[in-house]
Amino acid sequence: MAWSTTDRLFAALDNALKTLTVKPLGTGRPTPGHNLPEPELDDQARRQVVGLMRVNHAGEIAAQALYQGQALAARRPELYSLLLAAGREEADHLRWTQERLAELNAKPSLLAPLWYAGAFSLGLAAARLGDGLSLGFLSETEKQVEAHLRSHQDRLPEADQKSRAIIDQMMKDEVAHGQTARDHGGRPLPGWAQSAMRGSAKVMTQTAYWI
Known about the structure:
By secondary structure, the chain is mostly helical. The chain has helices at residues 5-21, 43-72, 77-103, 112-128, 131-155, 161-183, 191-208. It is globular, with a radius of gyration of 17 Å.
């Protein structure tokens, strides 16, 4: 199916509104660990879990924006469809982390609109460089997110298997998305671009942990 620029703009706007204002739908996959008992956490452990899940939720807000920005300017119609399909799986992650925060009586980052706007701009800019570099940017993003999630596994309290189940499945999906990007022609990014991406991600994660 061929999507006009107007169609893509309306789809991107619809995604932004749903991501920032309502419960995302995604693919409908059940939340990993939903049938596990709620762990008993002391105040310090609970604050740690809330901070980590808030960071992950903010990251998924950014992921939605990134995919939409890249899709908007994708040159190949099949790439547009691929990005939207991956974005729907990422919307599962957004819903899972949102639900986990609610279970912990905690709120997402107050700066969600900022994370969305920044990531959308980056995705759009990457797409303007051509599909190869856009997919390379996506591959590198997923690689860094995988490492970030792996570090969260080490920082989660051992008792909180509910959060761990969510992060485990998120990490598997990120690996798959990165491989898909490479399989469809993603080109490696220069070292300076990878470092810049790590720097910007660090700012977001450190801020979202608290705000």
